[in-house]
Design a protein that fits this description.
Layout lengths: L1 E5 L3 H14 L4 E5 L2 H9 L6 E4 L2 E2 L2 E2 L2 H9 L5 E5 L4 H9 L4 E4 L4 H12 L7 H6 L20 H11 L4 H8 L3 H15 L4 H11 L11
Parallel strand pairs: 1-2, 1-3, 3-6, 6-7
Antiparallel strand pairs: 4-5
Length: 219
């Protein structure tokens, strides 16, 4: 397992190293203290299985780096690890393409289970956010397959790219479909999930415990 930790606090880095050792016996971990270093590593062609990203770096604050990572490297899953764990920060992180948000105050057990979930294609959102999520008709926890709610294989592919934060233009390019077709699929996906936007879709999938298929090249 290859992981990049983007964090400027040495003690936090060492703590995350310990957690990753419980997820994988011999993780290949590279660290970046700065946003610029993280971008340099990825621009050389390295594609880790996961990026663990702090939101407050000396050269990038808030979701600035997250937005850039999702734009340049949409095939690399990013999980936000932050001490700032209010609902707005969590929602903004998910809205900008994070595949999960883990508070630095979480226990080791929570960290391990959250990382395992994301590495298997799941989406981790803190339970307190899910409990308070505005969702008029919560999805049934018994649903285990997206086909069960009527999504076609192509719509599941579109959903995967939506969750990764890709805009319609890149979804069309990735799947070789027209803008009109993409919009039709997205409309159907949101209707079947009973949500209004991408962020609510992430919450819904997390509530259902759904794991999305891994993209080609991400075994």
């Amino acid at each position: 397992m290859q992981v990049m930790i983007v964090e400027d606090q040495p003690l936090v880095v060492e703590g995350l190293r310990s957690v990753l050792a419980e997820v994988d016996t011999e993780p290949d971990i590279r660290c970046a203290l700065l946003a610029s270093r993280a971008l340099t590593l990825l621009r050389t062609g390295w594609r880790p299985d996961l990026v663990m990203l702090d939101l407050n770096l000396p050269d990038a604050e808030g979701t600035t780096l997250l937005v850039q990572l999702r734009s340049e490297f949409p095939d690399v899953p990013v999980v936000v690890i932050s001490a700032q764990d209010d609902r707005q920060t969590i929602t903004e992180s998910i809205d900008h393409g994070a595949m999960g948000f883990i508070s630095k105050s979480s226990t080791t057990a929570v960290l391990v289970s959250a990382l395992q979930l994301v590495l298997k294609g799941g989406i981790y959102v803190p339970q307190q956010v899910l409990d308070n999520a505005a969702h008029p008709h919560p999805p049934r926890p018994s649903i285990q397959d997206l086909a069960d709610i009527g999504l076609t294989p192509r719509q599941i592919q579109v959903l995967q790219l939506m969750i990764e934060g890709l805009p319609n233009k890149l979804i069309c390019r990735e799947l070789g479909i027209s803008d009109g077709t993409a919009k039709t699929h997205i409309s159907t996906i949101l209707r079947l999930l009973n949500v209004r936007n991408r962020t609510q879709a992430v919450f819904a999938l997390s509530q259902m415990g759904i794991r999305l298929p891994r993209r080609a090249g991400k075994d």
